[in-house]
Request: fold
Amino acid sequence: MAKTVVMGAGSWGTAFALVLADAGNEVSIWGRRAEVCDAINNDRENTEYLPGISMPEAISATTDAEEALADREVVVLAVPSQQLRANLESWAHLIPRDAVIVSLMKGVELGTHKRMSEVIAEITGAGPERIAVVSGPNLAREIASREPAASVVACEDQDVAERLQKLMHTPAFRPYTNTDVVGCELGGTTKNIIGLAVGVCVGLGFGDNTKASVITRGLAETARLGLAIGADPQTFSGLAGMGDLVATCSSPLSRNRTFGEKLGQGLTVDEVTAQTRQVAEGVKSCTSVSDLAKAYGVEMPIVEHVAALIAGKMTPIELVSALISREAKSESI
Reply:
């Protein structure tokens, strides 16, 4: 048992708080909005993001970051990736110096092209032995409903990864350890962008052959970039790679797949954003991942075309046509 805190009261942060509570930990949730925290404390339910899911007494919520972080052994960050830096700049001095910091976020920062663990290290000064990531096929609603699922907890320090594994292992949630932080983060980030592309194909009315083609070639793109920046290629065939990609691209519960589907149906980015209460991370990360790939000289046509679509430089049908009409080459390239 450990004293833990989840910084972020959205659907995934709340679902992960349930995992920690089910594993026997004391859990605090920090939320930006008082009404969300009040609902958790008084109604035992996050009515905004996970309505209908009962929350145990082991979980409490507060809008006070200092109160939430006090004496915590494990600090879980679950805010939108593009808001991490601003939040951490106000929280860093409150995080206990020996606490392990766990990232649930799946994105690459705009402008700096840094992964979330790199932003955490920069702002907090924490070493790699204090920074971990959790990634895998973990749709929040299914996790919160205690449907069987597996994930990966990655830290460069194997002992820390194993400690965290024990703190989040429940009858319904099975975590595996890994030391490839780079690969786990990259897999979690790019799958959102590929999920957007698959959603576009669904919105245009294309079937399973098209979806499977985009998923498979999207994984190949991810692996190419991962290899270039030092990831373990095997990571992409596991839960944080193929597993997360399949869940995101296949499920209507996926925000990114749903966002792309609406784009394929003819809505604009602004129109879909206005309809969406939660962040589709791929919409922001597609540009930063495309820029990162260019910096390493890695070709990622799906990511590049999704970035062009989001920027209004390409239509949904042009995206699919451009991918199919590219020069024929060996599958291994």
About this structure: The first strand starts at residue 3 and ends at 7. The chain has two domains: 3-179, 182-324. The mean pLDDT is 95.
